[in-house]
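ok so I'm stuck.
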Amino acid sequence: MKACEIASVFETIAPISTGIASDIENGFLGFRFGDRNVEVTGVGVAWFLSQEVVDAAVRKKLNMLIIHEPELFRQYVSPFHSNMQAATIPFNLDKMKKLLEHDICVYTAHSNWDLQTQVGMAPTVAKALGFSDLIKWDIGIGVFRIGKTTLSGLIKHVKKCMKLAHVRFQGRDDLPIKTVVLAYGSMGSEVEAILANNADAGIFGELREWPFIFAREAGVGIIETTHVRSESIGFASVVTELHSRLPDVRIEFLEVPYPFRLA
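replied:
not stuck anymore, here's the structure
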């Protein structure tokens, strides 16, 4: 089976047209590298195209990668310092050489997977947390009733279910929690999402400092689970969904190692 045929099946689950406009306009969705007509020996699914993911694909003979974050192919221009083109950075070149040498193609599924309300990021993380009483979907995030607990109790639950040794948070330990906004990744306007949905707390992926300040000022709880953990849980469901449609294709989830060291 060709990579483009597997991509067509994937797009019945998460059509490119369901992604946000900037992802579509910048070409962040779909094939990003390699031969889309290659005969696939196996599919690797991963949150990020890290060196470990490339090495695992080579080792396991997976020559199609479906990746969530398109960072290897995204070019930033900073107003604060000089930049190198993404394709000239040595560690990126090393990855690209390995991809070419082993005839591995790369397909990215970013916001078109984020915004799926049945199999995408938030539904999968909600399932991992045992949240089933959905109040509503607010575009890409879920608002859930979770029963009565405290912020301290919610933190313990999140850490256990998401296998996290640490989280960053703001709010009183004894803050009563009945409803939460559940999100992932890096979004912005996080406290505004909590307040707009009349929730008591929010669970997010990657946060900057000011949402913690805003949460303290607003008297709501906020929990950061990290970008990698929240979206690795959410993107792992690609394997299940694809395998149910392509049972004869070898499809594996490739973990990205936790990126932080904690002092």
